[in-house]
């Protein structure tokens, strides 16, 4: 039963110290909009892997390829701006610490910043993710455990203002992949309780801040 430190959007200064070493987890999960140095510190201090998706305030990681310790972009070696040792799940299906993740980072497009998508663009990315997940399921029989996103599904934990609207395509993605969990950030509770939402077999959880979660 893997246990994870799940973080998004809001840095907890108490965790960005050696005090975090008292936390016992198997991996760090990042749902976006956190300094990559913060994610790298958490994973390094805890000596566990880190899987994440970028948020709309994070640097653009598209176009980078990584082979071992070498990062390439446009055919040239270049430093990777992401967290050291982190696994970027955006648009990918990855297995980390015994869990299978399918990732879709970013938010709805509201200006010219990075990691922002129109509903149509994110729907296209979601279809590609579903194809990859189906292929992996055909190959090894394993389903997706966690759909890791930065933004929530439309009308399921999002907000009415334009920058915080959710993605409609996540409804179909949930229907097809049937993950046990959808974890997202982007929507700051500001002290209000945020209950989980359940759609079919999937539990949707806002993980802004930090949480310790066990995955059966």
From TrEMBL:
Species whose genome carries this gene: Amycolatopsis vastitatis
MF terms in GO: hydrolase activity
Pfam family, one: Metallophos
Domain Calcineurin-like phosphoesterase span(s) in chain numbering: 17-189
Upper classification of the organism: Bacteria, Bacillati, Actinomycetota, Actinomycetes, Pseudonocardiales
This protein's name: Metallophosphoesterase
InterPro entries to which the protein is assigned, alphabetical: Calcineurin-like_PHP, Metallo-depent_PP-like
């Amino acid at each position: 039963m893997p246990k994870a430190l799940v973080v998004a959007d809001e840095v907890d200064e108490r965790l960005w110290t050696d005090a975090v070493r008292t936390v016992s987890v198997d991996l760090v999960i990042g749902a976006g909009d956190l300094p990559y140095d913060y994610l790298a510190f958490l994973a390094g201090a805890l000596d566990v892997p880190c899987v994440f998706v970028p948020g709309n305030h994070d640097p653009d990681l598209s176009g980078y390829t990584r082979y071992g310790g070498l990062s390439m972009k446009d055919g040239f070696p270049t430093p990777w701006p992401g967290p050291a040792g982190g696994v970027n799940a955006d648009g990918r299906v990855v297995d980390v610490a015994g869990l299978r993740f399918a990732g879709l980072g970013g938010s709805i497009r509201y200006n010219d910043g990075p990691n922002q998508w129109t509903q149509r663009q994110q729907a296209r990315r979601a279809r590609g993710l579903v194809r990859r997940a189906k292929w992996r399921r055909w190959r090894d029989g394993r389903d997706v455990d966690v759909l890791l996103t930065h933004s929530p599904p439309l009308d399921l934990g999002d907000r009415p203002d334009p920058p915080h609207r959710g993605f409609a395509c996540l409804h179909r993605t949930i229907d097809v992949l049937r993950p046990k969990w959808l974890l997202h950030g982007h929507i700051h509770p500001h002290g209000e309780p945020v209950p989980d939402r359940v759609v079919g077999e999937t539990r949707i959880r806002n993980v802004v801040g930090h949480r310790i979660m066990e995955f059966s």
